[in-house]
Write a structure and sequence with these properties.
The protein has 262 residues and is α+β, with helices and mostly antiparallel strands. The chain has two domains: 118 residues, no CATH class; 130 residues. The strands form three sheets. Strands 2, 4, 5, 6 and 7 form a five-stranded antiparallel beta sheet that branches. A four-stranded antiparallel beta sheet has the order 9-10-8-11. Strands 1-3 form a two-stranded antiparallel sheet. A hairpin with a 2-residue loop joins β4 and β5. α5 crosses α6. The longest helix has 30 residues. It is elongated.
């Protein structure tokens, strides 16, 4: 159910002075162990730290002529951050951040926000993000709605097989009732899912549903020490609700939803 990144750690390297452009993934503490064997943006596997005053930019080399607007590089950006986040706090930078002057970049990016970055890293210490998405089995839940609401049943029967123009008003009313009934179910079911997981969370950030069948789309911040129990709790909820919904858990990830734009 969960995605995990396994990579070999390597010792931190301070590369403030090498020539050539550097692709910046995020902000970490100085001395953070960077993963080895992770293919980054541009296809390379080298990662290093550009350090300054206790913090560092997590970076890697990139060819000056490399075109960044590819799905492969977007995925590589996330893959590197997720690999680092599996063992240390990291503040993700926006995709596409490239610097030419390492010392200047450290001073500009880290130096100007040093206190805020240090506080954010402290808040995220020992934690990783997971993303959970729950979607209904549409036919099952619509059958529930039909069985539970007499007016929906009556309007369904009254409009079935009729000329849409003749029953326009009843059809609009039927649609409104179904949408309302699904919204009520979504609120109740999402509350049940989150209540079962809350004992294993630091916090959660709920996103707006992106589709009619979506019950819940939420980012969850979990202590690494509780990962096993958290994943077991998700599996348990999945088993108990399997007849009505599907759960998809992704992580551990970098804390994208718990870091203000860096």
């Amino acid at each position: 159910m969960t995605g995990r990144t396994d990579s070999q750690p390597s010792a931190p390297v301070d590369r403030r002075d090498p020539s050539g452009p550097h692709y910046v993934y995020g902000v970490v503490r100085a001395g953070t162990t960077v993963p080895g064997g992770v293919v980054g943006v541009g296809g390379g596997e080298e990662l290093y730290l550009l350090e300054g005053d206790g913090l560092a930019l997590l970076a890697g080399p990139i060819d000056a002529a490399h075109h960044l607007a590819t799905q492969r590089d977007v995925l590589a950006h996330a893959r590197v951050l997720d690999a680092v986040a599996a063992g240390a706090p990291v503040l993700p930078m926006r995709y596409g951040t490239v610097v030419d002057d390492p010392a200047g970049a450290v001073d500009e990016i880290v130096g100007q926000s040093h206190e805020r970055f240090a506080e954010l890293l402290a808040d995220l210490d020992g934690a990783a993000q997971y993303s959970l998405r729950a979607t209904y089995h549409e036919e099952t839940v619509l059958a529930e709605v039909l069985a539970e609401d007499p007016e929906i049943r009556e309007l369904t029967e009254a409009t079935r097989g009729q000329d849409p123009d003749i029953v326009y008003g009843p059809r609009v009313r039927l649609g409104e009732l179904v949408v309302g009934a699904l919204a009520a179910k979504r609120r109740a079911d999402s509350t049940v899912v989150l209540a079962a997981l809350t004992p294993h969370l630091r916090t959660a950030a709920t996103r707006e549903p992106g589709a009619p069948d979506e019950v819940l789309d939420v980012a969850l911040l979990v202590d690494r020490s509780k990962r096993g129990r958290f994943e077991e709790a998700v599996d348990d909820v999945g088993r108990r609700t399997a007849d009505r919904m599907r759960l998809r858990l992704i992580g551990p990830q970098a804390p994208y939803d718990f870091v203000p734009g860096t």
